[in-house]
Amino acid sequence: MADSAKPTARLPFSGGRPPHLPCGPGDVAENVLVPGDPDRVALLHDMLTDVQDFGRKREFALVTGTFEGRRLTICSSGIGGPSTEIALVELAMLGAKRVIRIGGCSALVPEIPTGDYIVPHKATGMTGVAALYAEHGHTPVADPALASALEASAAAMGLGAHRGMIASTDSYYLGQDRPIRLQAAGSPDAEYLDRFLAEGAIGVEMESQVVLAVGQAIGLRAACLLGVHGNRATDDWLVDYENTQRNLLRIAGQALAMDACN
Ligand SMILES: O=P(O)(O)O[C@H]1O[C@H](CO)[C@@H](O)[C@H]1O
Ligand SMILES: O=c1cc[nH]c(=O)[nH]1
After folding, report:
1. Which ligand is closest in space to the CA of residue 101?
2. Which ligand is nearest to the CA of 103?
3. Whether the predicted model's global pTM rises above the 0.80 cut
4. Which residues form the Nucleoside phosphorylase domain (predicted)?
């Protein structure tokens, strides 16, 4: 379907090129890392060799290169569920088989410091896209072998990785109990984060529930690796976040090599 020459309204691929990602047939590796921010593709691409840069359309920047002998694509998803669903579906249609979201989150419990990592084994939350995919489960699960490989990879590098449930939401401000007017900066009304905590979530961000729900639905092996950018229990926020982001690629790249189902 993805290589039909003429676009249709139902599936507007043109000559095999998808309507959103800036690439075509043969450009996407079987292994894909998906950060949210397109600038992170630029930040990380010097860690690859033999890089082909396919540029950027909207929030989707995409490069394919080699990381430790393995062909690897890095493609940004933008913020939130709708653009993340588009990225995953089009990546899969172009040949992706294993996808790891590498993004940021805030921890919800005081024991997880900023600069550590979370490997969600499942995701809860209130994203619209995951609700659409709900027949595959309100709490979609990560590919177990891929998630285990991420944990083992972080451990091998001596980096703190915490296994647990992540919560994803479509809202950065109200949905994460942040003030939505400066005047209210001192008095956020905690509500949504308490609900996530009560369900057992250890962190919050905006895409993992979608990545896992879509992955399960379309048969893409999917997992997430999240850098802990903030901690909502201690109110700590990591100002220098670049090293954490580079470690996301290092951990995920090693995990792809360690994955038992490789
Ligand atoms: O670090 P990324 O992948 O962008 O993820 C997190 O950061 C963004 C919000 O600032 C949301 O996309 C959230 O999920
Ligand atoms: O607090 C945070 C940090 C990263 N991403 C989010 O969505 N929230």
Report:
1. 1
2. 1
3. yes
4. 32-235
